[in-house]
């Protein structure tokens, strides 16, 4: 009897063991396919996102900057903030399942769809997920780029995949590629509903003293008159950010308005070599438009050498801030429709031959777009690195421009504001108030958007 009971116990133990092994090896995974368990990648334990370097992100940033600079038509000015932001969000969502302390942005960003879920209990190789997502996002945002650029996108994706497939093993690699592509598809489809496609609908500007009108030499129509209607990334990001209105239009030499414009003219008559260089450095055309902020951030991240998880967080948060700052700025621009300095200087101050350092951008003056975005961008970077941070911006070394060094993000923001005044394209008031608006937007985003659980 005792022997029979012993046999029964042994049989029970054997059955439990067999059932346990079958469950752990996933003998009946989804779609009846064999899956590697989460604990194994190519014979090794699966690792979290913070184990990997940021190489995949840095290489794709370089690719995106090249696409911004060389794709036809050139998408300078404000629009590059969109691919910067959406691509960075896709990167974050492609690797956040490997970041236990962090959460998806779905449910926080306006109308953002639910993200695909990883298969529970099965391994993913996060650089592969990132590579698939970033390749797809860049293809989607730059469909009309040159064949040479398209070939470079393919080459970069394949170059990284050759390494990642060896690291991950075939099954984990394929699963990771599929996940990254699924994330990119949802994010890009979401981006198409933000209103940017309607930003340049037909527009007739109001007419009257002090109101914006097309400026020489191109006399181009207003760009993005409805950009301010675009969907905000973060609900409430513009709360309390509306700047104090500019001085009331006047031709009286004693008025604040007259003195505001006269300052621009006076500065133009005594520009130093460094002031001219600063203005041209932030012209960003030729260059990357607002992609300059992405270039600055990449240089800072390369200096910091964070792991992939931190890089994904910083890129996403900064990109989101740039987008919402641009929307807030454009809403204000087309509410006030303030004229640019060139018109007043030529027609009221009586200097018909006066000109700016480069062509005035085709939209109202107040507030300055570059200043608003710089304020928001700087505020986000302070949150990660502190204000007193030293870095050098080498963005335009390729154009032969001297790099510019900074000891704080406030210093960076001030130089960007000053650059627009030195160029003759903005009033100082527009730059200072734009910077204040941007800082408030950045603060709102830092308060409202939560990456950590």
Automatic annotation (TrEMBL):
It comes from the Bacteria. Signal peptide: none annotated. PANTHER family: PEROXIDASE-RELATED, TRAF-TYPE DOMAIN-CONTAINING PROTEIN. This is Vanadium-dependent haloperoxidase. It comes from Paraflavisolibacter caeni.
